Request: fold
Amino acid sequence: MKYEAVIGLEVHAQLLTNSKVFCGCSTKFGAEANTQVCPVCLGMPGTLPVLNKTAVEYAIKMALATHCRINNKSIFARKNYFYPDLPKGYQISQYNEPLTQKGYIDIEVNGAEKRIGITRIHMEEDAGKLLHGESYEDADFSFVDLNRAGVPLIEIVSEPDIRNSEEAVEYLKSLRDILVYLEICDGNMEEGSFRCDANVSIRPVGQKEFGTKAELKNMNSFRFVQKAIEYEINRQIEVIEDGGKVIQETRLFDSDKGVTVSMRSKEEAHDYRYFPEPDLLPLQVDEAWIEKIKASLPELPAEKRERFVKDYGIPSYDAGVLCASKELANYYEECIEKYEGQGARGKGQETAAAKNVSNWIMGELLRLLKEDNKEAKGCPVQPETLVKLIKMVDAGTINQKTAKEVFEEVYKTGKEPEAVVKEKGLVQISDEGALFKVLDAVIAANPKEAAEYKAGKEKLFTFFVGQTMKATKGQANPQVLNKLVKERLAK
Ligand code: ADP
Ligand code: MG
Ligand code: ZN
Reply:
């Protein structure tokens, strides 16, 4: 029997407001425990929540960017449960009437576009954080830090439109890109400002009804999401092949072992006893405000990709790589700007320069950043420095191969390209006399090959170019060298 997976994701994104969602406390990450709290977020009796308007604005931004409908009236609800990190005994969330619903985003997997539906995006507050004994000297205690209690979140719930782990990761990456582009969430998975629960079920291919789902938690990187989903799909297939039944439960991903383990079954699931929050009025947003927010939206990843293809004439693959992060896209555009005058912007022939810059970034720069575990944001080479290097190639001072070595040195030492070239004596040899000398020595050392070439074995052309290049330690100007080899070995 062949099976197909059905996956729906629930994403929690922490909004980048300065203050919490129902009080004025700071949301800054990393402060000393319990220094950013007040009677409201500590859940003291008699206090009243006041909604943070910026948090609503950010939620609306995300809704607009994901084609969601925005409800002019929505309701906050109490989600009741007891836990030490939740001083009120309930979380303020939205339930029946969320702020926004019924949207979608388009993702691309293996070259094919796919639309993933978004069921709803609602607003809620975060809980505090429990710190368990092992990180402290006295392992007998757990500690609670309420700095995070009341920090604004949006929960983005997808339709069960996702069919495998790759699509899940692409969907998550696209969501995160949009949030980061909108500057409403930092997208940091390790610090927990972008968290994902995955609902996974399987069904025989061709069957319409969904199977019973398991909900996976505790995956704090894209790789873990992918691994957890893959493990879970295989686990469910095995259960069914063995004649068993998948039960509805919550499972935790153990990243050390690469497995999911049962946390609680449906029977132990919470009954949250949702009811409308009596301390907050229904949230009303008017069309004029929505229009104003719409007008303030920045260029989104998909739009930027399209513009890069159109304006710079680079392939859509390049645009996809460059626009994967806003910083990298900015880096590219800064390079193009610095390159200006060399004709990088524009149509036709001039786009060769734009593609050249793209090649440098996609190739050498991303390779070094990856080795270094860095993103464009922390790139030690400034755009103008990269452009200086590219211009040295354009001017014929160094060749492409040498430029790559120089770039690595520039990346690692922070030196200027000119300085590295000078220091290491890497200036390209374009002088015909000097190159002839080396070439003649190569020909003299390989008389058999020279004779064969003259007799018509044209393949040997690259042999002579290669040997001469090697003898100059890669510093020969390839155009000049090609010309000289042709001249010297002319029939
Ligand atoms: P619950 O009430 O258990 O939280 P929801 O209906 O709210 O379930 O759905 C939560 C998430 O699970 C959504 O992202 C949804 O797309 C997904 N989902 C629902 N049913 C299934 C299923 N059978 N298999 C996989 N995912 C599912
Ligand atoms: Mg749910
Ligand atoms: Zn507070």
